[in-house]
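User: My instructor asked us to take a sequence, write out its structure as tokens, and then describe one feature of it. I'm not sure where to start. Here is the sequence I was given:
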Amino acid sequence: MKKLRKEIKILFIIVIALAVLVCGLLVTYNYLLSAVSKESDKVNFTINSGDTTQSIVNNLKDANLIRNEFVTLVYIKLHGNLVLQAGNYSLSRDMSVKDIIQDFANGNVIGATMELTFHEGKRITDYVKIISDATGMNYDDCLKDINNKKFIEQLVNEEKYWFLTDDILNDKIYYALEGYLFPDTYQFYKNASLEEIVKTMLNNTANKLEKLKEQIQNNELTIHEIFTLASLVESEAKTASDRAMVAGVFMNRMRNGISLGSDVTTYYAVGKNFGDGLTFADLGNCDNGYNTNHRCTNNKGLSVGPISNPSLSAIEAAINPTPNEYFYFVADCTGKTYFNVNENGHNQTISKLISENNWCE
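Assistant: Let's start with the prediction itself. The structure tokens for your sequence are:
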């Protein structure tokens, strides 16, 4: 009888302990879902099209709008039927996680917004034109402000923009942020400043690169070289497999001290658009850090910086080039890429494409 009473007592203690533990967890859970402050000061918050739940929660934490990222993710997971809609929101620090997430699910966006799409492979001058046309900002002023040295230095010093290094401060670079503004579709307030637009795009770059950060930091190329190579690859090949192969060809040429010979760099160097045609003077214009034509014997490596803003596919190709034995490549009018070991084979391929009326150089 005494043994039974003792067992009941132990069981009772266990039940009480479990109850206390569960209550404690519930109290902690609810506390971490509560508002971070009693103050109702407003905070503008933007969800861009394509933002992941993780990145949204990370941004909420950065904005000091939630107490805990993990618990917020758990809450969202438990309410899997909620869709967090892109747009601009006016939140406050006295809102609980439940209130904030419900705002996102209801799409309670504020103010007049604009949707801007920036395509991969386009230059920063193209992006500035889009911004200028949509906002009414003066194009020349925007181009000057986006390249303001003080502004660029501030961005380089921001920890969250770890991918922006001192390399972009090179005086030979035309536009410091070329290559780093992630191509995507964004939602902005119509009265958004250029700085807000730029930082939103850089935040997107940071989010997209997070899963690649370790590979980037352990690569034989520097971060800046990876983005530069990616921009060339973006302009030279269409498919992910071709891009990785082209990146491999460029690596072969660099390792063997051979000029890259990429005409896309010459177009950028002389400020021409693709299809405008290059003159002999353009090909031999070596008074810059971009032209990789074989005439520019002082530059047998990568351009001094990116020549466009590459896609994630091109960045991945630059990080992980496909090892191969080729030193030459050429694309036909459909975008299909042909690879050759030597110049003789390369010229034969070009001759064949010309005879087939499939040469669109």
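For the description part of your assignment, you could build on this observation: Residues 219-355 form one domain. Try explaining in your own words what that tells you about the chain.
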